[in-house]
Amino acid sequence: MAPRSRPGRGPPRGARNPRGRHRAVPTAAGPEAVANPALAIHPELITADDSTRAAGGRVLSPHFRRMVGYVWGFRRLLAMSFAAAVAFAALHTFSIGSALPVLKIILEEEGLHAWVDRLVASDRLGAALRVWRTDGGTSLLIDRIHQRSPLSGEGLPALSRVDVGKEGTSHWLAGVAAAAAGGDVDLTIVDADGRTHTLTVSLPAADWKMRALHRASTWLPRQTGPTNLRVLVTILAFVCVVVIVANAFRFLAEYWMSRAVLGGMVHLRGQLYARVLRLPMSFFVQSETSDTVSRFVQDVQEIQRGLLALFGKVVQEPLKAIFIFALALMLDWQITLTMTAVAPVAVGIFWAVGRKVKRANKRLLREYGSMIGQLTTTLQAIDVVKAYTAESAEKERMARLDRNVYRHQLRLAVLEAALRPMLEVLAVFGLSCVVVWLGGRVLRGSLDPSEFLQLSLVMGMLLDPLRKLADVYTRVQRSAAGADRIFSVIDAPAEPDVDPADASVAVAPLKEELAFQGVTFTYPGASSPALSDVSLTVRRGECVALVGPNGSGKTTLVNLLQRFYAPDCGRILYDGAGIETLPLAGLRRNMALVTQRAVIFAGTIAENIAYGSPDAAPEAIEAAARRAYADEFIRARGGRYGEPVGEQGVTLSGGQRQRLAIARAVLRDAPILIFDEATSQIDTDSDEKIHRALRELTRGRTTLMIAHRPSTFRFADRIVVMEAGRIVDSGSHEELIARCTLYRILCQADGAGEAQSIPSERGLSHEPEAPAVRRH
Fold first, then answer.
1. Less Cβ crowding at N or C end of the chain, within 10 Å?
2. What is the torsion angle, in degrees rounded to the nearest 10, for the CA atoms of residue 608, residue 612, residue 618 and residue 620?
3. Candidate from 134-143, 259-268, 697-706 with smallest mean pLDDT
């Protein structure tokens, strides 16, 4: 059942998410990816190139049809919108059809009622009657006789006329039109030579359309001559009412359709975000953050515009065309069917241009992603840009990106601009043929001027939806390109996990030990392994410090423990069980992470401390802040835990951000702590408090500490020295000083007793051996 949706509210709750009907389509990524699903990276996720070009020639790609499914969850609104669109199209066509009676009143002496009576009389007699005026008066010329006419067997010669007597054509036609079915009527026939004879014919019932037209004419005052102005005003007033009602239905159709589309986009963005959060770390290493952001912003916006066009004009314009086509068939079916000959040509133009538009828009979306990345990088490092007076260089870099965007925008604009003129030329050609045909009939006297104008107007209006769909079609193709990029992410394999039925099972706190057994790992695209045959056991409650030069594999080791990646060889055991057999969420709930770059989210101080522990009480949050020595600076700022800290904690110092990150780990109270010491300079007071908080936090807790300073790793229970992805030694500080040359070098570097460290932008913990999470 479609979700209920009330006017004025947001997206209905419980709207069915169509995602469940679709399965991810695996992409071949080589034997390594098969053995290690976490490394199965889809190239289209990185470059969003023309890998889906094979489907580009279709009018609507499979991804676009899936996209429509998100809006189908609001099918009640769509049904209401469709009904309103049908009402609008019908009333719009009625207003167009009203042009003929208006033209009859203005242009012809016959008058509206006499014209209607003539149509009805012609239908009942089965003969085309035209008013014939001579100096001697008026009569009715029998233009042609149909096969089923009651006159067909009378052998009437060509150019025969019906003598209407002194009462005139209007009175005679009114009598024939109003006569009862089956009644007899006497016809005085005058041939071309002036001979007369009388025929008595039985009148059949008029066609239902003629009866409806005759009945409608009786609602208007029967007046002729100058007083026709009153009839004209009456008709135009009625048309104005019809137009007002029609546009009210148009508003409702667009409003309900917009609610359905916008609600579908809420679900699409939600599912896209949920999938991004579940993607393996290898995706973020190889893809650019700006490209992912561009999919959320630019691509979803393209999809929204396409769906608004699809359920708006793509529904309304064909409905208008259908009703106008029906009106045209009623007026003249032969010329209407002739006009449809331009349809195949128009479809061919749509198809050819649409393919090019879709491919061009894919390239444009990639360029938008690059521009967003450059803007983000520059604004985040604006202090460095200013300090190095690099404004000119950044301006030139942005100008190059902007020129690329301009080039792709221009190509897209050329394609879109070319489509409508081609269709305009096609429409003018078709309409010209219609005018020639109808003009010939007017010159031969078989068509009234007012009917000529009405038919020309209707044929022109019949081509109008085609012209409007030119812009809509390119918009739909552009959104199809966005859909391909969006669903390439949604269909990407998530982090490998256990069976979904067991995914929510809790993992018991560590009881014995963590063990790395012969672990080897190579990052995707790297030429050499980051870890080679590493074996390490960490007992419950033990604090182990990992030290070594940059690129030695320290961060990679803890990343594997958290299952951000899977090892190529070897195993990682949690109390004897392989971590790949444990529920992913349950495993990570047993760990607290403090990264080298203290991650602070936009929000309040309390929200940052409680991140990962959303149900924490205010008292617990404040207690965690006190244990992390963060309560001091919070009180100095007024003691407001609800105070915003700005984007990325811009209002806090480096030491304050680090203490908030430690408070977050304290509040989580996980049995395993992973701490990556900051390499940036922190003031002495903050450094002392961070070390004090760290000693308290690691007491009795299983800890893996990536340490850069002797003051940090000297209080560990055991120190593990790593180099080039291998463990070269382990022991206490005194033991390693005595026997490990590398350890002595690390302790003596910098002359002040601090280990040499080079800040890096790689990995989640920002250790150099982990590939960079691409942010540009």
1. N
2. -110
3. 134-143
Q: Determine the number of helices (DSSP H) and then strands (DSSP E) in the chain.
A: 28, 15
User: What are 514's strand-pairing partners?
Assistant: 538, 574
Q: Is 600-669 a domain of CATH 3.30.470.20? A: no
Q: From 3.40.50.10490, 1.20.1560.10, 2.70.70.10, 3.30.420.40, which CATH number describes the 41-92+237-490 domain?
A: 1.20.1560.10
d(CA 41, CA 524): 9
Note the pLDDT of residue 42. 37
Interior/surface letters 3-27, b for 16+ CB within 10 angstroms, e for the rest: bebeeeeebbeebbebbeeeeeeeb
- Residue 54 DSSP label: G
Distances in Å between the Cα of 224 and the Cα atoms of 106, 165, 173, 228 are 11, 19, 15, 5
Residue 762 scores a pLDDT above 50 = no
What gap in Å lies between CA 709 and CA 545, rounded to an integer?
A: 11
Q: Is the pLDDT of residue 564 over 50?
A: yes
Give the residue extent of every domain in the chain.
Answer: 41-92+237-490, 125-210, 600-669
* pLDDT (0 to 100) of residue 360: 75
Q: Which residues contact 719 (CB under 8 A, 6 or more apart)?
A: 544, 545, 547, 713, 730, 731, 732, 733, 736, 743
Classify residue 24 by its DSSP letter.
-
Nearest to 775 by CA among 289, 183, 393, 111: 289
Record the tokens describing residue 363, joined without a space.
């390239």
Query: Within a 10 A sphere around the Cβ of 135, how many other Cβ atoms?
Result: 4
Distances in whole angstroms, Cα of residue 437 to Cα of each of 132, 336, 443, 444 = 23, 12, 10, 11
* Enclosing H/E stretch for 266: helix 228-278
- The class level of CATH for 125-210 reads mainly beta
For the cut 80, the answer to whether the pLDDT of residue 9 exceeds it is no
Rounded to whole angstroms, the Cα distance separating 704 from 718 reads 10
pLDDT confidence tier of residue 573, bands split at 50, 70 and 90: very high
How far does CA 290 lie from the centroid of its chain? 18
Residue pLDDT, tens place only, 50-71:
334 334 444 456 777 788 888 8
Residues in a beta bridge with 137: 134
- In this structure, what token pair is assigned to residue 156? 């009437």
The strand pair at 702-706 and 543-547 is best described as: parallel
